[in-house]
């Protein structure tokens, strides 16, 4: 687990993680409208945060790619809106907990990323398209319905089907 | 706590994608702190975001990017976010991140008079962007009658209200669109405290003609 080694301040592990994720985070930033130098800077910032926060990464909560996505997402919000992304605090006594993940789920979690990618690939193209548009093109469901010339209800039902499928996948292991 | 009214799935997905204005994100974050079901939907949406990043075609970084990042990580540590102090003993009523936005839990708040026995505390107020505030409606009384130009989401934190024949209690979110003239009434027994987010200023009913204003934003 690369991120666990990064938490131990292993520079070789970090270099490997950087080589994999920095060019993908840069790609994500470009896709969402950053120019090349902004995308480069945000990708570097994201990997700085990955190094600094690696000891707070909890493999039982999320796959590494998911955790890095949330870091990149939050940096983008900070950079463009000078805003925080408000989030619950997992240690907050007022947080209503779910059932804790089983030991099996922790072992399985690292395969999430692969399984979710596989599940996305298996989705009908029409569902995959609305998922991509809503995540990567910053479009509202109304805008997607106009761009694809399909009813709003159809956009919503495709999203619901796609997310239902992914959620079942995540919950199957818990 | 049994939650019966959840935010629309589109809002959860856009929260996970990082595309909501701060006021709406605050409401979603507060709801998912109280609602494991919606939290699991948000986690699933974030996992899809992770899979999409994983699948993105790599774009070459500059030649010295890794060295530059390693040089930066040496310099300073990540500052810990500032949190509102925890009340001693009892479990707080306001969950994070709302408690930090408000500055304290319910018992330490500085309410401002709104009229007709109601009070409020603005939390997120930017011109042209959705606003968030805490509302306190006295037990058994209505919220001053109003419509609005855009979407309004109201999440109950304590007490309950009834609107259009439906009951909203702690954790529930009411979604009202521009067409709805609604009239939430706090149930007797306890003041009703809500987090209210509007994407346009409230129009309290009066002689001014209602403008049909298409709402843009979320
Ligand atoms: Zn919910």
Task: Explain what this protein looks like in three dimensions.
The complex is a heterodimer of chains A (174) and B (218). Chain A is globular, with a radius of gyration of 18 Å. Chain A has two domains: 83 residues, RNA polymerase sigma factor, region 2, helix turn helix motif (Rna Polymerase Sigma Factor, Chain: A); 71 residues, Orthogonal Bundle (Arc Repressor Mutant, subunit A). Chain A is mainly alpha-helical and 174 residues long. In chain A, α7 packs across α9. The relative contact order of chain A is 0.09. Chain A contains nine helices and no strands. The model of chain A has no long low-confidence stretch (mean pLDDT 83). Chain B has 218 residues and is of the alpha+beta class. Chain B has a domain of 106 residues: Jelly Rolls (Sandwich). Chain B has five helices and eleven strands, in the order αααααβββββββββββ. In chain B, the strands form three sheets. Chain B has a six-stranded antiparallel beta sheet with strand order 1-2-3-10-5-8, with helices on one face. Chain B has a three-stranded antiparallel beta sheet with strand order 7-6-9, with no helix packed on it. A two-stranded antiparallel sheet of chain B has the order 4-11. In chain B, β2 and β3 form a beta hairpin. In chain B, α1 packs across α3 and α2 packs across α3. The longest helix of chain B has 20 residues. The radius of gyration of chain B is 20 Å and the shape is globular. The relative contact order of chain B is 0.17. Chains A and B meet through α2, α3, α4, α6 and α7 of A and α1, α2, α3 and α4 of B. The site of zinc ion has 6 residues of chain B, from α3.
């Amino acid at each position: 687990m690369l991120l666990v080694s990064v938490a131990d301040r292993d520079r070789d592990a970090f270099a490997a993680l950087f080589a994999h994720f920095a060019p993908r985070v840069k790609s994500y930033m470009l896709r969402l409208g950053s120019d090349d130098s902004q995308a480069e800077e945000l990708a570097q910032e994201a990997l700085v945060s990955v190094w600094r926060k690696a000891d707070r990464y909890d493999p039982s909560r999320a796959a590494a790619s998911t955790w890095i996505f949330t870091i990149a997402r939050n940096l983008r919000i900070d950079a463009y809106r000078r805003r925080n992304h408000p989030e619950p605090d997992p240690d907050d006594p007022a947080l209503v907990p779910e059932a804790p993940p089983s030991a099996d789920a922790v072992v399985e979690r690292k395969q999430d990323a692969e399984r979710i990618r596989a599940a996305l690939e298996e989705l009908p193209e029409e569902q995959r398209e609305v998922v991509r548009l809503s995540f990567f093109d910053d479009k509202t469901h109304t805008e997607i319905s106009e761009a694809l010339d399909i009813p709003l209800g159809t956009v919503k039902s495709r999203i619901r089907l796609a997310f239902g499928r992914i959620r079942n996948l995540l919950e199957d292991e818990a | 706590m049994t939650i019966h009214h959840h935010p629309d799935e589109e809002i959860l997905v856009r929260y996970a994608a990082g595309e909501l204005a701060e006021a709406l994100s605050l409401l979603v974050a507060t709801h998912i702190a109280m609602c494991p079901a919606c939290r699991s939907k948000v986690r699933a949406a974030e996992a899809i975001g992770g899979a999409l990043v994983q699948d993105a075609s790599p774009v070459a970084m500059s030649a010295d990017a890794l060295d530059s990042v390693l040089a930066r990580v040496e310099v300073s540590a990540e500052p810990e976010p500032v949190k509102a102090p925890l009340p001693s003993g009892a479990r707080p009523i306001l969950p994070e991140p709302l408690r930090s936005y408000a500055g304290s839990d319910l018992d330490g708040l500085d309410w401002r008079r709104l009229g007709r026995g109601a009070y409020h505390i603005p939390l997120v107020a930017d011109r042209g962007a959705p606003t968030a505030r805490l509302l306190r409606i006295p037990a058994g009384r209505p919220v001053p009658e109003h419509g609005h130009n855009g979407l309004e989401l109201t999440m109950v934190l304590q007490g309950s209200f009834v609107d259009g024949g439906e009951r909203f209690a702690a954790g529930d979110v009411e979604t009202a669109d521009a067409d709805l003239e609604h009239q939430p009434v706090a149930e007797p027994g306890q003041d009703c405290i809500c987090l209210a987010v509007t994407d346009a200023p409230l129009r309290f009913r009066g002689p001014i003609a209602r403008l049909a204003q298409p709402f843009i934003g979320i």
